[in-house]
Amino acid sequence: MTEHKGLLFRLALFKQRYTRGSSWTQILISFGIITANAKLFEDFFYIHLGLTLPMVIAIAVPFYILVCYIIGHYDEKIGFWQIENNMSYRYTPYSEEMLNSIREIRKKMDKES
Predict the structure, then answer these.
(1) Integer-rounded Cα radius of gyration of the chain
(2) Beta-carbon contacts of residue 99 (< 8 Å; ≥ 6 apart)
(3) Nearest to 44 by CA among 35, 33, 56, 34
């Protein structure tokens, strides 16, 4: 098992925390982009749809969240996320070792049955 110290451990820990943090930051940035685009097209929304900027933002943010959720749900249903996860396990030495151990145990259990 890998030591819980040293440069590689600290670098891996930094990368995990950075990735989680950047994921949350991306959510916040997305709301900022929605607001910026609403402001950019404020005249269009008001003239053609009669919507003020707060109304557009109040509609756009929940709609954005709903669309992201639907895409994530569809991704889950078709199994794409599982393919991605399986690929990450396939190319990880520890996962490969674990899979080989499970196969050996399964063979032993099949022989005993």
Answers:
(1) 24
(2) 89
(3) 56
- List the structure tokens of 94: 């520890």
Per-residue pLDDT, 34: 92
Decide: 38 and 53 in contact? Cβ < 8 Å.
Answer: yes
Q: Identify the weakest region by mean pLDDT among 19-33, 53-67, 71-85.
A: 71-85
Mean pLDDT across 87-102: 75
Assigned token pair, 5 = 């110290």
In this structure, are residues 2 and 9 in contact, taking their beta carbons and an 8 Å threshold? yes
User: Cα–Cα distance between 29 and 59 in angstroms, integer?
Assistant: 17
- 70 vs 91: CA distance, rounded Å: 30
